[in-house]
């Protein structure tokens, strides 16, 4: 990534880091590879990710390792092995590269990147609400919420899910001859995933399948009601999608996706759910948890044009003596918080063009004539107005004043203030 794609990527990450702090999520890092069993146990031996898409290899000791295809399994493993139970309820967030061997498509790469947020050790529906508010605010602050819809469903508690699963299996078995080959295969391994089928041969059977609501326990129905009423109270818009599922048995209650059609066919830009059974399934204690993840590349594609950071000052020294002076002043200005660059080569015309291309606010030009006078030419690149300023004071220009184009001022040798736009003296 370079240029626009890198700027979009950085903007998504920077916004995520800022918003996660507003919600009190702690930044964590987890390994890029884990023992293969971590993902096989958490994602299910029969899922496409484990069966077809994982990058797995043997290390020198003969152990099977896998590049992480997602974040949640590694976080759950760390929760069990690193004693993180003492911090529960634990709100954590991370971002970084993931790896899946799948057919590359728009916004999806074999090495791709995600942002991820989890709340571990909280069984309350308010945890689901807070995570969804976090996601909703993130999308709004990125400016990509238009055309993006939060779709929501409940998978119920274990009792509700088991009853619904049995009803779905009976329904699909009764229409086995009408199902696609993939759905017949899923019927034995992962029947809920048939509801996800995009094959037109399955549509009529899926449309007639029983919904979860008829099988919800009172407790599960009350949980979902608290989630939706919490979203309403927070002003987060949502739509019910009774066909939204998660295939693995450790998922419970809330499942959600933020979807858009702005990338062509409708696609998910952020998704997640409650996985109360995962940590227990991996050998840890009974631990409720809920989380979400989003692809950074996909979010970046939805952004409007992102401008790279502008330069405050471009230095254009002409000659070795001027370069030594410029290096000293550059160091002073950078330590004071200004974004500065210096051209290494080229005549003054080419260097000025590069300064304009970089959207620099000011150019500082120093040549032999300026050194003889102990001054530098400071040019406002928005207005074209330039003045001469004493070299010894260039490193003292306040960032707050320089940043305001109408207030760009520097202290001259006599202590008065010289306006860089006009050159006129003004009272202090």
Automatic annotation (TrEMBL):
It catalyses: tRNA(His) + L-histidine + ATP = L-histidyl-tRNA(His) + AMP + diphosphate + H(+). Residues 12-317 form the Aminoacyl-transfer RNA synthetases class-II family profile domain. Its EC number is 6.1.1.21. GO terms for molecular function: ATP binding; histidine-tRNA ligase activity. PROSITE patterns: AA_TRNA_LIGASE_II. Its main location: cytoplasm. InterPro entries: aa-tRNA-synth_II (IPR006195), aa-tRNA-synth_II/BPL/LPL (IPR045864), Anticodon-bd (IPR004154), Anticodon-bd_dom_sf (IPR036621), His-tRNA-ligase (IPR015807), HisRS-like_core (IPR041715), HisRS/HisZ (IPR004516). L-histidine binds at residues 70-72, 100, 114, 118, 246, 250-251. It holds the Pfam family tRNA-synt_His. It is found in: Cytoplasm. It comes from the Bacteria. GO terms for cellular component: cytoplasm. Homodimer. This is Histidine--tRNA ligase.
């Amino acid at each position: 990534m370079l240029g626009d794609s890198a700027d979009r990527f950085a903007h998504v990450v920077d916004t995520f880091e800022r918003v996660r702090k507003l919600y009190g999520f702690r930044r964590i890092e987890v390994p890029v590879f884990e023992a293969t069993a971590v993902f096989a146990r958490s994602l299910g031996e029969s899922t496409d990710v484990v069966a077809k898409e994982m990058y797995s290899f043997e290390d020198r000791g003969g152990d099977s390792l896998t590049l992480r295809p997602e974040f949640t399994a590694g976080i759950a493993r760390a929760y069990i092995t690193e004693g993180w139970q003492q911090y529960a309820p634990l709100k954590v967030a991370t971002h970084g590269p993931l790896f899946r061997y799948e057919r590359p498509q728009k916004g999806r790469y074999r090495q791709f990147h995600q942002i991820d947020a989890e709340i571990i050790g909280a069984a309350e529906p308010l945890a689901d609400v807070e995570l969804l508010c976090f996601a909703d605010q993130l999308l709004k602050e990125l400016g990509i919420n238009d055309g993006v819809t939060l779709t929501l469903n409940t998978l119920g508690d274990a009792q509700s899910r088991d009853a619904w699963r049995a009803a779905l299996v009976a329904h699909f078995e009764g229409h086995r001859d009408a199902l696609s080959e993939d759905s017949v295969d899923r019927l034995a391994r992962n029947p809920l995933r048939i509801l996800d089928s995009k094959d037109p041969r399955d549509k009529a059977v899926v449309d007639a399948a029983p919904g979860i609501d008829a099988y919800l326990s009172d407790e599960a129905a009350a949980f979902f009601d608290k989630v939706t009423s919490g979203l309403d109270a927070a002003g987060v818009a949502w739509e019910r999608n009774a066909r939204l599922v998660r295939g693995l048995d450790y998922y419970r209650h809330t499942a959600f996706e933020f979807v858009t059609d702005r990338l062509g066919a409708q696609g998910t830009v952020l998704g997640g759910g409650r996985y109360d059974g995962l940590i227990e399934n991996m050998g840890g204690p009974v631990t409720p948890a809920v989380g979400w993840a989003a692809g950074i590349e996909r979010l970046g594609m939805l952004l409007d044009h992102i401008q790279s950071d502008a330069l405050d000052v471009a230095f254009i020294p002409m000659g070795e003596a001027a370069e030594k002076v410029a290096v000293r002043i550059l160091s002073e200005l950078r330590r004071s918080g200004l974004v500065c660059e210096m051209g290494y080569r080229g005549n003054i015309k080419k260097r000025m063009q590069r300064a304009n291309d970089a959207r620099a606010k000011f150019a500082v030009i120093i040549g032999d004539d300026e050194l003889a006078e102990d001054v530098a030419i400071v040019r406002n690149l928005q207005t074209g107005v330039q003045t001469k300023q004493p070299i010894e004071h260039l490193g003292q220009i306040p960032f707050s004043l320089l940043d305001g184009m109408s207030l760009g001022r520097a202290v001259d040798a006599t202590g008065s203030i010289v306006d860089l736009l006009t050159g006129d003296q003004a009272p202090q």
